[in-house]
What we know:
alpha+beta; Immunoglobulin-like; Rhopdopsin 7-helix transmembrane proteins; Heat Shock Protein 90; 7-stranded mixed sheet; 18 strands; 54% helix; 18% strand
Amino acid sequence: MALLLATLATIAHASVDGAFAEVVVDRSDTVDLVPHLSYFEDVSGQWRPDRPGALTVAQFLPMSGDGRRGYLGVGEHDVWFRVQLRTTEDAPVDWFWVIEQPTLPWVEVRSSTEAQPARWLYSGIGHSPSERAWPHRWQVVPLELPPDATTTVYMHVRVKGDLRMPVRLWRPATLARHDQRQYALHSLCFGVLVGLLAYNLLTCASIRDAANLWCLGAFCMLGVYLFSAAGFLAQSVWMGGVLPYQRIEMVSLSAGCALLIQFGRSFLKTVRSAPRIDRGAVVLLGAWGLFALMYGTQPAEVSQWSIWAMVVLSLLLGLVMVTDGVLGHRAGSRPVAAAWVCLVAGLLIPVIDRFEPLPLSQWVATAPLVSVAVALVLLSFALADRLRVERLALEREREVAARADLARGLARQAQDEKSRFLAAVAHDLRQPLYAVTLAAEVLRRAPAPDQSQVVLEQMHAALETADGLLDSVMTVARLETGTLEPSPAVCRLDKVMDRVDLAFGAQAEAKGLRWVVTPSVAFAYTDEVLLQRVVFNLVANAVAYTDKGGVIVSCRQRAERILLQVWDTGPGLALDGDHPHFDRRFRGEFGTETDSGVGLGLVIAQRTAALLGIDMQVRSRLGRGTCFSLHLPGAAATLALSAQPV
Length: 646
């Protein structure tokens, strides 16, 4: 009876084995096994291929028959896969059975040939590192395939969640070269990610910007998710089972998406600029929080579909936010929009590949990592651009405020100077008018004839003083309003020097000063009347403020220009530079013996010289004296002689 059952089992096994085509394994670097796999859902969870009669119970279905290409959907799976490998005579013996899925919890591989007994090997993140057949971030099992022989391979997979089975045979050297490229790419992306996170951390610590903080948190969480999803976390740290890895991935992905939404709100200021979009973002943030609280209480299929649906909603809402920012021309919105497009592409490519395999599928798994690294680069540019714009705006605000403060200060200063100026004018006008009043009172009392002449001279002098004061005030007013226009012509400077000598020589000698006016035969092209006013004001100031020493007025030719200087040994001026700015101000206290005006002489001289295009410079030392220099444009002597005879 036992012999009969064994014979029937052998016949059934042979019939089942013959129902499936063999996969030819030659000297190729890789062999795609997905189209040749057959699978069987073990509902009982007790099926084993080495038990008697097991093959008669199992109903293996071809993977290529229903077009699912290795994707079995989301749920709780306990699946057996089966394939027969027929090696050629020149085929290598050593191969790797590779499942390009890092997060599978439980994988068993059974290989057997007619000449060799069955061999069981294990992999998956549910096993400890010592139990795994080969240390790798993927599920890798070494196989020995004898040449010119048929090897039957059974693979048992248990998973709670998403099941996709991209199974290949790899030659060891080919897998090593592939790993070098993949690890180099991952190292580059994770290195860029870590470097940019460190940079943004330092920036956040220095400027304490909320948007920078949300961006930093979001990409930290996405980096943890990608590190775990790529298999590096399970490869480097074993946590005693698969549940911690799944929870880490779901929590980090949820937190990353929620923090990205919060970053968009803070960076684009949607609370003020787009309140409707902002309310939608707040609702989505609440949904993420609710999902985090309920995670683990729902079936795996519901949790998987829920989280990916919310990821898609978050990406779409982010696109709406950045589009509104670009249309609103907000600072940094364009780099943020480019970064968000990268994130959308990087996260949607693996989702699309689950349902319809894309070309170069071995590179599809790196798309999220590359997109996150590129997005972080763009967001770093966006944050820097926004900081630059905000800094410029702040500097402009400070500059405007400083200008406003300066304008207010100048206005107050001008008002104060105006008040002081009017007070000085009133004071100085009161003196000659008072003198005229006294003289008139003396005349009213009918003084002697000799006294009348003296009184009349005093009245004339007082009226001349008042007239000069009013003339100075009118000159300043015309200079400030621009109504004083020069009439340049060729003029002889010796006449100007003679008038200076006649006007101030007697006054200087009366004060006991050394008075020197050098003769000159130079000609200048300027307004003679205005030039004389400039020189008179400078000389009057020098004579009035010099108590000892002397005053020198010189004029000499220097190439095509003429240098006219006024030297004195007075108290000097406390000025900075050779081109000082003189303000309207009175000198000293009212009634000082040298105060013959309201301090308009230097103001008139400087502004009139500027009107004539004359370069006026001053050198002065306190207690030593002052030298005013006027650089006049010269004129040809022949032209001057033809215009006015000597």
